[in-house]
TrEMBL record:
<keyword id="KW-1133">Transmembrane helix</keyword>
<feature type="region of interest" description="Disordered">
    <location>
        <begin position="188"/>
        <end position="208"/>
    </location>
</feature>
<feature type="compositionally biased region" description="Low complexity">
    <location>
        <begin position="190"/>
        <end position="208"/>
    </location>
</feature>
<feature type="domain" description="Sulfotransferase">
    <location>
        <begin position="241"/>
        <end position="343"/>
    </location>
</feature>
<feature type="binding site">
    <location>
        <begin position="322"/>
        <end position="326"/>
    </location>
    <ligand>
        <name>3'-phosphoadenylyl sulfate</name>
    </ligand>
</feature>
<keyword id="KW-0808">Transferase</keyword>
<feature type="active site" description="For sulfotransferase activity">
    <location>
        <position position="29"/>
    </location>
</feature>
<dbReference type="GO" id="GO:0008467">
    <property type="term" value="F:[heparan sulfate]-glucosamine 3-sulfotransferase activity"/>
</dbReference>
<protein>
    <submittedName>
        <fullName>Blast:Heparan sulfate glucosamine 3-O-sulfotransferase 5</fullName>
    </submittedName>
</protein>
<feature type="domain" description="Sulfotransferase">
    <location>
        <begin position="20"/>
        <end position="129"/>
    </location>
</feature>
<feature type="binding site">
    <location>
        <position position="120"/>
    </location>
    <ligand>
        <name>3'-phosphoadenylyl sulfate</name>
    </ligand>
</feature>
<feature type="disulfide bond">
    <location>
        <begin position="308"/>
        <end position="317"/>
    </location>
</feature>
<keyword id="KW-1015">Disulfide bond</keyword>
<keyword id="KW-0472">Membrane</keyword>
<feature type="binding site">
    <location>
        <position position="112"/>
    </location>
    <ligand>
        <name>3'-phosphoadenylyl sulfate</name>
    </ligand>
</feature>
<feature type="binding site">
    <location>
        <begin position="29"/>
        <end position="33"/>
    </location>
    <ligand>
        <name>3'-phosphoadenylyl sulfate</name>
    </ligand>
</feature>
<keyword id="KW-0325">Glycoprotein</keyword>
Protein backbone atom coordinates (compact mmCIF):
# COMPACT_ATOMS: atom_id res chain seq x y z
CA UNK A 1 0.00 0.00 0.00
CA UNK A 2 1.33 3.48 -0.87
CA UNK A 3 0.50 4.97 2.53
CA UNK A 4 3.05 4.63 5.28
CA UNK A 5 1.76 4.04 8.78
CA UNK A 6 3.76 4.47 11.93
CA UNK A 7 4.67 1.03 13.25
CA UNK A 8 2.29 1.39 16.18
CA UNK A 9 -0.63 1.45 13.72
CA UNK A 10 0.14 -1.85 12.03
CA UNK A 11 -2.24 -4.11 13.89
CA UNK A 12 -4.86 -4.87 11.27
CA UNK A 13 -4.69 -6.81 8.05
CA UNK A 14 -6.50 -4.48 5.63
CA UNK A 15 -7.13 -0.82 5.08
CA UNK A 16 -9.86 1.01 3.20
CA UNK A 17 -11.42 4.44 3.10
CA UNK A 18 -14.35 4.58 5.48
CA UNK A 19 -16.99 7.20 6.18
CA UNK A 20 -16.26 9.02 9.45
CA UNK A 21 -17.58 7.47 12.64
CA UNK A 22 -16.96 10.73 14.50
CA UNK A 23 -17.09 14.40 13.52
CA UNK A 24 -15.66 17.54 15.03
CA UNK A 25 -18.56 19.85 14.17
CA UNK A 26 -17.13 23.11 15.60
CA UNK A 27 -16.92 25.67 16.97
CA UNK A 28 -14.50 27.62 14.81
CA UNK A 29 -11.62 29.25 16.73
CA UNK A 30 -12.16 27.02 19.74
CA UNK A 31 -9.25 24.68 19.02
CA UNK A 32 -10.78 22.40 16.38
CA UNK A 33 -7.44 21.86 14.65
CA UNK A 34 -5.57 21.29 17.90
CA UNK A 35 -8.19 18.78 18.96
CA UNK A 36 -7.96 16.80 15.72
CA UNK A 37 -4.17 16.76 15.71
CA UNK A 38 -4.07 15.72 19.35
CA UNK A 39 -6.52 12.90 18.77
CA UNK A 40 -4.40 11.76 15.86
CA UNK A 41 -1.70 10.89 18.39
CA UNK A 42 -3.92 7.93 19.22
CA UNK A 43 -3.21 4.77 17.20
CA UNK A 44 -6.91 4.10 16.81
CA UNK A 45 -7.62 7.46 15.15
CA UNK A 46 -7.37 8.41 11.49
CA UNK A 47 -8.15 11.92 10.29
CA UNK A 48 -9.30 13.48 7.04
CA UNK A 49 -6.69 15.85 5.65
CA UNK A 50 -8.38 19.22 5.30
CA UNK A 51 -11.85 20.47 6.09
CA UNK A 52 -14.07 18.52 3.70
CA UNK A 53 -17.23 20.67 4.01
CA UNK A 54 -19.38 17.84 2.74
CA UNK A 55 -22.54 18.53 4.73
CA UNK A 56 -22.59 22.33 4.59
CA UNK A 57 -21.78 23.00 0.94
CA UNK A 58 -24.46 21.93 -1.49
CA UNK A 59 -21.99 21.54 -4.33
CA UNK A 60 -20.20 18.89 -2.24
CA UNK A 61 -23.26 17.28 -0.70
CA UNK A 62 -24.78 16.74 -4.12
CA UNK A 63 -21.75 14.67 -5.10
CA UNK A 64 -22.94 12.01 -2.69
CA UNK A 65 -21.51 9.77 0.00
CA UNK A 66 -19.08 7.98 -2.30
CA UNK A 67 -17.40 11.29 -3.03
CA UNK A 68 -17.23 11.96 0.71
CA UNK A 69 -15.85 8.50 1.47
CA UNK A 70 -13.07 8.97 -1.08
CA UNK A 71 -11.99 12.11 0.81
CA UNK A 72 -11.34 9.97 3.86
CA UNK A 73 -7.95 8.51 4.74
CA UNK A 74 -7.20 4.82 4.61
CA UNK A 75 -7.91 3.16 7.90
CA UNK A 76 -7.65 -0.25 9.47
CA UNK A 77 -10.71 -2.03 10.73
CA UNK A 78 -11.17 -0.97 14.32
CA UNK A 79 -9.81 2.52 13.71
CA UNK A 80 -12.03 5.56 13.94
CA UNK A 81 -12.05 8.05 11.07
CA UNK A 82 -12.63 11.65 12.11
CA UNK A 83 -13.34 14.67 9.97
CA UNK A 84 -13.61 18.29 11.13
CA UNK A 85 -15.39 21.15 9.44
CA UNK A 86 -16.24 23.83 12.01
CA UNK A 87 -18.94 25.41 9.86
CA UNK A 88 -21.08 22.28 10.34
CA UNK A 89 -22.06 23.59 13.75
CA UNK A 90 -23.69 26.78 12.44
CA UNK A 91 -25.21 25.46 9.19
CA UNK A 92 -28.90 24.62 9.73
CA UNK A 93 -29.13 21.88 7.10
CA UNK A 94 -26.20 19.89 8.49
CA UNK A 95 -27.59 17.89 11.48
CA UNK A 96 -30.29 16.20 9.40
CA UNK A 97 -27.80 15.39 6.65
CA UNK A 98 -25.38 13.87 9.13
CA UNK A 99 -28.14 11.73 10.61
CA UNK A 100 -29.09 10.54 7.13
CA UNK A 101 -25.53 9.24 6.74
CA UNK A 102 -25.13 7.70 10.17
CA UNK A 103 -27.66 8.12 12.96
CA UNK A 104 -25.22 6.76 15.56
CA UNK A 105 -22.23 8.94 14.64
CA UNK A 106 -20.32 10.51 17.53
CA UNK A 107 -20.16 14.29 17.60
CA UNK A 108 -17.45 16.38 19.19
CA UNK A 109 -18.14 20.02 19.93
CA UNK A 110 -15.30 22.12 21.25
CA UNK A 111 -16.21 25.46 22.81
CA UNK A 112 -14.38 28.35 24.43
CA UNK A 113 -15.56 31.24 26.55
CA UNK A 114 -17.71 33.05 23.94
CA UNK A 115 -16.15 36.52 24.14
CA UNK A 116 -12.63 35.11 23.81
CA UNK A 117 -13.85 33.09 20.84
CA UNK A 118 -15.38 36.17 19.23
CA UNK A 119 -12.12 38.10 19.62
CA UNK A 120 -10.17 35.18 18.17
CA UNK A 121 -12.60 35.09 15.24
CA UNK A 122 -12.20 38.84 14.73
CA UNK A 123 -8.42 38.46 14.86
CA UNK A 124 -8.50 35.81 12.15
CA UNK A 125 -10.90 37.74 9.91
CA UNK A 126 -8.82 40.86 10.25
CA UNK A 127 -5.62 39.03 9.39
CA UNK A 128 -7.26 37.48 6.32
CA UNK A 129 -8.50 40.90 5.32
CA UNK A 130 -5.10 42.45 5.84
CA UNK A 131 -3.32 39.93 3.66
CA UNK A 132 -5.97 39.59 0.95
CA UNK A 133 -8.21 42.62 0.74
CA UNK A 134 -6.07 45.60 1.59
CA UNK A 135 -3.47 45.23 -1.19
CA UNK A 136 -6.26 44.74 -3.74
CA UNK A 137 -8.18 47.72 -2.46
CA UNK A 138 -5.07 49.88 -2.54
CA UNK A 139 -4.33 48.86 -6.09
CA UNK A 140 -7.93 49.58 -6.96
CA UNK A 141 -8.03 53.06 -5.44
CA UNK A 142 -4.69 54.07 -6.92
CA UNK A 143 -6.10 53.56 -10.44
CA UNK A 144 -7.57 56.67 -12.15
CA UNK A 145 -11.14 57.05 -10.93
CA UNK A 146 -11.50 53.31 -10.61
CA UNK A 147 -12.48 53.40 -6.97
CA UNK A 148 -16.17 53.65 -7.75
CA UNK A 149 -16.29 50.37 -9.58
CA UNK A 150 -17.59 47.19 -8.05
CA UNK A 151 -15.04 44.38 -8.08
CA UNK A 152 -14.70 43.07 -11.63
CA UNK A 153 -12.27 40.23 -11.24
CA UNK A 154 -14.09 37.06 -10.22
CA UNK A 155 -11.37 36.35 -7.70
CA UNK A 156 -11.87 39.74 -6.09
CA UNK A 157 -15.63 39.33 -5.96
CA UNK A 158 -15.25 35.90 -4.50
CA UNK A 159 -12.76 37.08 -1.95
CA UNK A 160 -15.02 39.93 -1.05
CA UNK A 161 -18.07 37.71 -0.83
CA UNK A 162 -16.22 35.30 1.42
CA UNK A 163 -14.94 38.02 3.64
CA UNK A 164 -18.30 39.67 3.80
CA UNK A 165 -20.04 36.42 4.60
CA UNK A 166 -17.60 35.60 7.34
CA UNK A 167 -17.58 39.04 8.87
CA UNK A 168 -21.32 39.61 8.65
CA UNK A 169 -20.69 42.86 6.85
CA UNK A 170 -24.03 42.80 5.12
CA UNK A 171 -25.94 44.98 7.60
CA UNK A 172 -23.38 47.70 7.86
CA UNK A 173 -22.39 47.69 4.24
CA UNK A 174 -25.51 46.94 2.30
CA UNK A 175 -28.27 47.95 4.65
CA UNK A 176 -29.63 44.43 5.20
CA UNK A 177 -30.37 42.81 8.52
CA UNK A 178 -29.57 39.13 8.10
CA UNK A 179 -26.15 37.70 8.86
CA UNK A 180 -26.33 34.40 6.97
CA UNK A 181 -23.80 33.64 4.28
CA UNK A 182 -26.46 32.74 1.73
CA UNK A 183 -28.33 35.98 2.17
CA UNK A 184 -25.07 37.80 1.98
CA UNK A 185 -24.24 36.45 -1.43
CA UNK A 186 -27.58 37.54 -2.81
CA UNK A 187 -27.22 40.97 -1.33
CA UNK A 188 -23.76 41.29 -2.71
CA UNK A 189 -24.90 40.76 -6.26
CA UNK A 190 -27.84 43.08 -5.65
CA UNK A 191 -25.40 45.72 -4.49
CA UNK A 192 -23.28 45.12 -7.55
CA UNK A 193 -26.28 45.68 -9.74
CA UNK A 194 -27.26 48.78 -7.82
CA UNK A 195 -23.87 50.27 -8.38
CA UNK A 196 -23.82 49.39 -12.05
CA UNK A 197 -27.27 50.96 -12.26
CA UNK A 198 -26.05 54.14 -10.62
CA UNK A 199 -23.16 54.30 -13.04
CA UNK A 200 -25.45 53.81 -15.99
CA UNK A 201 -27.81 56.50 -14.73
CA UNK A 202 -24.90 58.92 -14.54
CA UNK A 203 -24.34 58.48 -18.24
CA UNK A 204 -22.22 55.35 -18.01
CA UNK A 205 -19.42 57.02 -16.09
CA UNK A 206 -18.72 55.93 -12.58
CA UNK A 207 -18.49 58.74 -10.10
CA UNK A 208 -15.96 58.61 -7.32
CA UNK A 209 -18.53 59.26 -4.61
CA UNK A 210 -19.70 55.63 -4.25
CA UNK A 211 -17.01 53.60 -2.52
CA UNK A 212 -16.49 50.17 -4.05
CA UNK A 213 -17.51 47.19 -1.94
CA UNK A 214 -13.89 46.15 -1.91
CA UNK A 215 -12.68 49.44 -0.49
CA UNK A 216 -15.53 49.34 2.03
CA UNK A 217 -14.56 45.83 3.02
CA UNK A 218 -11.03 47.04 3.53
CA UNK A 219 -12.32 49.89 5.65
CA UNK A 220 -14.47 47.51 7.66
CA UNK A 221 -11.52 45.23 8.09
CA UNK A 222 -9.62 48.11 9.60
CA UNK A 223 -12.33 48.67 12.19
CA UNK A 224 -11.68 47.69 15.75
CA UNK A 225 -13.45 44.81 17.44
CA UNK A 226 -15.11 47.35 19.74
CA UNK A 227 -16.62 49.26 16.79
CA UNK A 228 -17.89 46.11 15.13
CA UNK A 229 -19.32 44.51 18.26
CA UNK A 230 -21.04 47.51 19.86
CA UNK A 231 -23.18 50.09 18.07
CA UNK A 232 -22.52 53.79 18.84
CA UNK A 233 -25.71 53.81 20.94
CA UNK A 234 -24.19 51.14 23.19
CA UNK A 235 -26.25 48.13 22.12
CA UNK A 236 -24.58 44.92 21.06
CA UNK A 237 -24.48 44.16 17.34
CA UNK A 238 -26.01 40.70 17.60
CA UNK A 239 -25.78 40.16 13.86
CA UNK A 240 -22.01 40.52 13.87
CA UNK A 241 -20.88 37.03 12.89
CA UNK A 242 -18.15 36.61 15.51
CA UNK A 243 -20.83 37.30 18.13
CA UNK A 244 -23.68 35.29 16.62
CA UNK A 245 -21.47 32.22 16.23
CA UNK A 246 -20.67 32.50 19.95
CA UNK A 247 -24.39 32.13 20.78
CA UNK A 248 -23.82 28.43 21.11
CA UNK A 249 -27.28 27.51 22.38
CA UNK A 250 -28.94 28.71 19.17
CA UNK A 251 -26.88 26.35 17.04
CA UNK A 252 -26.68 23.46 19.50
CA UNK A 253 -30.41 23.46 19.85
CA UNK A 254 -30.76 22.42 16.21
CA UNK A 255 -28.36 19.51 16.71
CA UNK A 256 -30.19 18.27 19.77
CA UNK A 257 -33.43 18.20 17.84
CA UNK A 258 -31.80 15.58 15.63
CA UNK A 259 -29.33 13.73 17.87
CA UNK A 260 -29.68 12.45 21.44
CA UNK A 261 -27.56 14.32 23.96
CA UNK A 262 -25.39 11.23 24.67
CA UNK A 263 -24.10 11.25 21.12
CA UNK A 264 -22.42 14.62 21.57
CA UNK A 265 -19.42 15.42 23.72
CA UNK A 266 -18.71 19.00 24.70
CA UNK A 267 -14.96 19.62 24.91
CA UNK A 268 -13.71 22.56 26.93
CA UNK A 269 -11.38 24.41 24.54
CA UNK A 270 -9.97 26.70 27.24
CA UNK A 271 -8.95 23.62 29.23
CA UNK A 272 -7.59 21.89 26.14
CA UNK A 273 -5.06 24.74 25.93
CA UNK A 274 -4.01 24.44 29.60
CA UNK A 275 -4.21 20.70 30.09
CA UNK A 276 -4.76 18.71 26.89
CA UNK A 277 -4.47 15.25 28.47
CA UNK A 278 -7.45 15.64 30.80
CA UNK A 279 -9.75 16.66 27.92
CA UNK A 280 -8.38 13.91 25.70
CA UNK A 281 -9.04 11.31 28.38
CA UNK A 282 -12.72 12.24 28.34
CA UNK A 283 -12.78 11.98 24.56
CA UNK A 284 -11.09 8.60 24.53
CA UNK A 285 -13.76 7.33 26.93
CA UNK A 286 -16.51 8.87 24.82
CA UNK A 287 -15.14 7.27 21.64
CA UNK A 288 -14.71 3.94 23.41
CA UNK A 289 -10.96 3.69 22.84
CA UNK A 290 -8.35 2.98 25.47
CA UNK A 291 -6.43 5.77 27.17
CA UNK A 292 -3.35 6.15 25.02
CA UNK A 293 -2.67 9.89 24.65
CA UNK A 294 -0.55 10.80 27.64
CA UNK A 295 1.50 13.69 28.96
CA UNK A 296 4.66 12.36 27.28
CA UNK A 297 2.99 13.25 23.94
CA UNK A 298 3.16 16.96 24.80
CA UNK A 299 5.71 19.57 25.69
CA UNK A 300 5.11 23.21 26.43
CA UNK A 301 6.78 25.44 23.84
CA UNK A 302 7.69 28.72 25.55
CA UNK A 303 8.13 30.61 22.27
CA UNK A 304 4.74 29.58 20.97
CA UNK A 305 3.07 29.79 24.36
CA UNK A 306 1.16 26.57 23.70
CA UNK A 307 1.65 22.86 23.99
CA UNK A 308 3.22 21.20 20.99
CA UNK A 309 2.89 17.55 20.02
CA UNK A 310 5.28 14.62 20.00
CA UNK A 311 4.44 12.10 17.30
CA UNK A 312 6.24 8.84 16.63
CA UNK A 313 8.13 10.58 13.86
CA UNK A 314 8.96 13.92 15.48
CA UNK A 315 7.78 17.01 17.33
CA UNK A 316 5.34 19.43 15.84
CA UNK A 317 3.62 22.68 16.83
CA UNK A 318 0.47 23.90 15.15
CA UNK A 319 0.98 26.55 12.49
CA UNK A 320 1.44 30.20 13.41
CA UNK A 321 -2.21 30.90 12.50
CA UNK A 322 -3.10 28.85 15.58
CA UNK A 323 -2.32 30.74 18.74
CA UNK A 324 -2.32 34.27 17.36
CA UNK A 325 -1.79 37.30 19.52
CA UNK A 326 -5.15 39.01 20.04
CA UNK A 327 -5.50 42.80 19.85
CA UNK A 328 -6.15 44.64 23.08
CA UNK A 329 -9.88 45.01 23.60
CA UNK A 330 -11.30 47.72 25.85
CA UNK A 331 -12.14 45.96 29.16
CA UNK A 332 -15.42 47.89 29.31
CA UNK A 333 -16.44 46.30 26.03
CA UNK A 334 -15.34 42.87 27.25
CA UNK A 335 -17.47 43.20 30.41
CA UNK A 336 -20.39 44.53 28.40
CA UNK A 337 -20.19 41.47 26.12
CA UNK A 338 -19.71 39.05 29.02
CA UNK A 339 -22.89 40.40 30.57
CA UNK A 340 -24.63 40.14 27.22
CA UNK A 341 -23.62 36.50 26.87
CA UNK A 342 -24.47 35.51 30.46
CA UNK A 343 -28.06 34.61 29.63
CA UNK A 344 -27.09 32.74 26.48
CA UNK A 345 -24.43 30.82 28.35
CA UNK A 346 -27.01 29.72 30.90
CA UNK A 347 -29.17 28.37 28.11
CA UNK A 348 -26.17 26.55 26.69
CA UNK A 349 -25.34 25.04 30.11
CA UNK A 350 -28.93 23.84 30.37
CA UNK A 351 -28.77 22.21 26.96
CA UNK A 352 -25.52 20.39 27.71
CA UNK A 353 -26.33 19.71 31.38
CA UNK A 354 -23.09 21.22 32.62
CA UNK A 355 -22.01 24.61 33.92
CA UNK A 356 -18.82 25.64 32.13
CA UNK A 357 -18.27 28.48 34.58
CA UNK A 358 -17.61 31.25 32.08
CA UNK A 359 -17.13 34.69 33.66
CA UNK A 360 -20.09 37.07 33.61
P1 LIG B 1 -6.10 31.75 18.88
O1 LIG B 1 -5.25 31.74 17.64
O2 LIG B 1 -7.11 32.82 18.90
O3 LIG B 1 -5.28 31.68 20.16
P2 LIG B 1 -9.31 26.58 15.44
O4 LIG B 1 -8.33 25.52 15.09
O5 LIG B 1 -10.66 26.02 15.74
O6 LIG B 1 -9.31 27.70 14.46
O7 LIG B 1 -8.84 27.18 16.84
C1 LIG B 1 -7.70 27.98 16.95
C2 LIG B 1 -7.39 28.11 18.43
O8 LIG B 1 -6.87 26.88 18.92
C3 LIG B 1 -6.33 29.11 18.74
O9 LIG B 1 -6.96 30.36 18.88
C4 LIG B 1 -5.73 28.58 20.06
O10 LIG B 1 -6.10 29.34 21.17
C5 LIG B 1 -6.32 27.19 20.19
N1 LIG B 1 -5.37 26.15 20.57
C6 LIG B 1 -5.63 25.17 21.44
N2 LIG B 1 -4.57 24.41 21.64
C7 LIG B 1 -3.59 24.89 20.86
C8 LIG B 1 -2.23 24.51 20.65
N3 LIG B 1 -1.71 23.46 21.28
N4 LIG B 1 -1.50 25.23 19.77
C9 LIG B 1 -2.05 26.29 19.16
N5 LIG B 1 -3.31 26.71 19.32
C10 LIG B 1 -4.10 26.02 20.16
Amino acid sequence: HPMVFPSSRVHFPKTSRRLPQALIIGVRKCGTRALLEMLYLHPRIQKAGGEVHFFDRDENYLKGLEWYRKKMPHSFRGQITIEKSPSYFVSPEVPERVRAMNASIKLLLIVREPVTRAISDYTQLRSHAATAILPLAERESSGSGASAQPPKMPSQSLLYAKLQAAHGYDNALLGGSGAGAKETKTKLSAAGRRQTGAGAAAGGTMTTTTPSPLASAAQMAAKSFEELAIFPNGTVNEAYRPLSISMYHVHLHRWLEVFPREQLLVVNGDRLIEDPVSQLRRIEAFLGIEHRVKSEHFYFNETKGFYCLRYDNGDRCLRETKGRKHPHVDPVVVSRLRRFFAEYNQRFYELVGEDLGWPE
